[in-house]
Amino acid sequence: MPTLPVRMSTHKALVLHARDQPLILETVPQPISSTGDAIVRILAADIVPYMGDVISNKRPYPLSVPMTPGNTAIGRIHEVGPDAVDLTPGQLVFCDITIRARDNPAVSILYGVHGGGYPAAQKLMDGVWRNATYAEYARFPLENLYRLDEALLLGPLGYSINDLCLLPVCLVPFGGLSEVGLKPGEVVIVAPATGRYGGAAVNIALAMGATVIAGGRNQTMLEKLKSIHVTNRLRTVRITGDTAADTELFRTATGKPDGADVYLDLSPPAVQGSSLLASGIRSLRAFGRCVVMGGNSGNLDFPYLEIMFKSIRIQGRFMYDRQHVQQMIQMVESGLLPLGSKSGVSQTKVFGLEEIQQALESAAKLSGWGEHVVLKP
Ligand SMILES: NC(=O)c1ccc[n+]([C@@H]2O[C@H](COP(=O)([O-])OP(=O)(O)OC[C@H]3O[C@@H](n4cnc5c(N)ncnc54)[C@H](OP(=O)(O)O)[C@@H]3O)[C@@H](O)[C@H]2O)c1
């Protein structure tokens, strides 16, 4: 591991020494900034529901131990490296954990969550980018830190730091919908829309000016989405699991004879063998776009000829890019994209570093859109 400069001062961090052991709260040397990075005081980190499984290796994401895990966070710049030209100590920032190799941006890791699993990515995690945000302080590449207008967000817009932790949940579907160029006035089918990212996708797609067809099995959650977003640009479809029936339901809901413009698929691993993707693709118009963003670990079942005859585009998308983060922050700061209770997230559970086990257990129980769990180091 390369040696980084460390100062004599210390901070508290949760350290994972082995995947079969719990996180330990330790007092460790505080990181010190160097060229190309900044040290951030972590104010709040969003805990993703599956984080307990990652730490325990039930979800065997590659991680190099010992390390400090973490998720996307909101922080305050503590100090910056000598080449920073925009960021200054004291600024409120969004800390993005998608770290890309500077000499090959195709190589990426999720800082504190997933080490890529191939040698080039592992080199990133093994070295400088090992200790993430479940700590009082964390090092970030300068390009992963985004200035937030604190006065506006916490003032007239009425948000809390916890509300801002919802940014990464909305960013994932925004990355996919931007990738396929969703435009105002277009019709997008989001399915399943009843999960955490599905609920966020409905929120962001409406803010992008689209009409949204939210599909899912859970009628209660579909009703909840309708009660959150009181607009005739949101329609819901209770899916049946039958390809032909679901295609018909989606197509009818679009209200357009040719079908939807975009289909966003967020199928989780549990949908093995499901026909949802086929129904979504079949509901698209000619030259329609399908973006695949779920964690389905199986193979895709495509209506082959239909894709060819209708010139359908199928696009995978992992996370998002820097311009998506910048655009989304503008959407929030302009009031276009609501967060927190304005977006239907009415319950936030907050935990300190010493309560990490309860925090992970609480996050694991999250389902759908409406609650979130935040760690406040
Ligand atoms: N591309 C990326 O960069 C990226 C980033 C983050 C997450 N993801 C992926 O996005 C996916 C969604 O994540 P999430 O956190 O939103 O999941 P989640 O909150 O657990 O929601 C899962 C959704 O899938 C539905 N579902 C489960 N089994 C189903 C089935 N057999 N048929 C139809 N619907 C079914 C659930 O609906 P019910 O209520 O009906 O069960 C629920 O709406 C995950 O697989 C995750 O890996 C991708």
Automatic annotation (TrEMBL):
The UniProt GO MF terms for this protein read:
oxidoreductase activity
Q: Name all Alcohol dehydrogenase-like N-terminal domain ranges.
A: 36-148
Alphabetized InterPro entries for the sequence? ADH-like_C, ADH-like_N, GroES-like_sf, NAD(P)-bd_dom_sf, Zn-ADH-like_protein
Entry-linked PANTHER family: QUINONE OXIDOREDUCTASE-LIKE PROTEIN 2 (PTHR43677:SF4), SHORT-CHAIN DEHYDROGENASE/REDUCTASE (PTHR43677)
Cellular component, GO annotation: mitochondrion
- The Alcohol dehydrogenase-like C-terminal domain covers 198-333
Instruction: Supply the name of the protein.
Output: Uncharacterized protein
